[in-house]
């Protein structure tokens, strides 16, 4: 669950991380008034749950209130990263001396928190790692002890910052870790973390992702989300939440529909293993079979999807019941992309027979074969409605 930039900055400021002065606005007049109050050059930043907003034209700059009005008028109502821009963060301009990258995230390799720090701010961590892996300081944190000040100092000392800035970066890392732990977050990232001309440190951006399973421990934040005060995720993710479906939009082309979180993750891993890119996480099972039509519509409404793999493995959940729901969805929606099946477990004989009778195809005997077929189909434009 991704927070918008201004929401993340509010939380960062609460734990002591310096952020630029700013105001959230929803109209060009609001942007003009904010620029007048801030005095001097301002940045206008689209508040959408998408990265690379600058490259997508979602961040503009203005020298005066009139310019801010014009830039806001151009941005509001437009789209950035597939999301409609309904609000802007207007912030005071900052004289930047250098830019850093800082993050705390869940690390599957160490099965614990990982702190990253690099002098190459303003870039994605993947780009930094590909260009110069040694430029990234990595701290694998023992979650029982937490991030320590000596650990933070050791990472910061590698950057050769002025003493004033170095102390502030250490304090920022420690504060970011506190926020990460306090929110049950999956990611707390500042990119760029700017060192100003006066050797002060400011968080110029924020990216915070929360674990939805941890929201029950944060009742005030959950209440704000339910009130609509925090508009998180893409449009498709918000639709999924409204339907009670566990849907997460990814950046690939292979749509995934599976039952159970573990099997869904396994399917995503298999898609990646065979050279494809999953387009979504979507778990459907148990009573969710009654939502098969809106679930499949979610998958298909992602314009990047070029094939779909349906992977069912039933123990207590019956595969024939789940398959019946998906077949009804296919018949109603008539998808134009190929769909590949893998069905095993309770009720599989009936499920396989249903697929054959109603679609004229048979599921693959092995999940890997179904995934490989979907990956291959996604590499070219599939034109057959359903394929096995």
Automatic annotation (TrEMBL):
The keyword ATP-binding applies. Residues 9-226 form the ATP-grasp domain. GO terms for molecular function: ligase activity. It comes from Amycolatopsis acididurans. It comes from the Bacteria. Keywords: ATP-binding, Ligase, Magnesium, Metal-binding, Nucleotide-binding. Pfam families: ATP-grasp_2 (PF08442), Ligase_CoA (PF00549). This is Succinate--CoA ligase. The keyword Glycosyltransferase does not apply.
């Amino acid at each position: 669950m991704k927070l918008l930039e201004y929401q993340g900055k509010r939380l960062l400021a609460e734990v002591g991380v310096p952020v630029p002065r700013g105001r959230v606005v929803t109209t060009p007049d609001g942007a003009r008034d904010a620029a007048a109050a801030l005095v001097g050059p301002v940045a206008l930043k689209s508040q959408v749950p998408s990265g690379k907003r600058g490259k997508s034209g979602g961040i503009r700059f203005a020298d005066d209130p009139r310019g801010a009005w014009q830039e806001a008028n151009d941005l509001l109502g437009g789209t950035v990263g597939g999301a409609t821009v309904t609000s802007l963060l207007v912030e005071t301009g900052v004289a930047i001396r250098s830019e850093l990258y800082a993050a705390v995230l869940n690390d599957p390799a160490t099965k614990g928190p990982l702190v990253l720090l690099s002098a190459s701010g303003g870039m994605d961590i993947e780009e930094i790692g590909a260009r110069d892996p040694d430029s990234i300081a990595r701290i694998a944190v023992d979650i029982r002890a937490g991030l320590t000040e000596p650990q933070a100092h050791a990472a910061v000392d590698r950057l050769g910052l002025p003493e004033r800035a170095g102390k502030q970066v250490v304090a920022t890392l420690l504060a970011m870790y506190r926020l990460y732990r306090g929110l049950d977050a999956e990611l707390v990232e500042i990119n760029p973390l700017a060192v100003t001309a006066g050797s002060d440190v400011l968080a110029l951006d924020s990216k915070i992702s929360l674990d939805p399973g941890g929201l029950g421990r944060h009742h005030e934040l959950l209440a704000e989300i339910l009130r609509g005060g925090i508009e998180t995720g893409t449009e498709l993710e918000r639709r999924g939440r409204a339907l009670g479906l566990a849907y997460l939009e990814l950046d690939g082309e292979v749509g995934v529909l599976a039952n159970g979180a573990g099997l869904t993750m396994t399917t995503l891993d298999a898609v990646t293993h065979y050279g494809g890119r999953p387009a979504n996480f979507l778990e459907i099972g148990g009573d969710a079979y009654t939502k098969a039509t809106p679930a499949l519509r979610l998958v298909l409404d992602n314009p990047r999807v070029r094939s779909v793999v349906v992977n069912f493995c039933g123990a207590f959940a019956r595969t024939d019941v789940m398959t019946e729901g998906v077949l009804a969805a296919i018949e109603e929606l008539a998808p134009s992309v190929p769909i590949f099946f893998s069905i095993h477990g309770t009720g599989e004989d009936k499920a396989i027979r249903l697929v054959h009778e109603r679609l004229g195809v048979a599921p693959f005997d092995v999940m890997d074969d179904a995934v490989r077929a979907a990956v291959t189909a996604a590499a070219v434009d599939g034109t057959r409605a359903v394929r096995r």
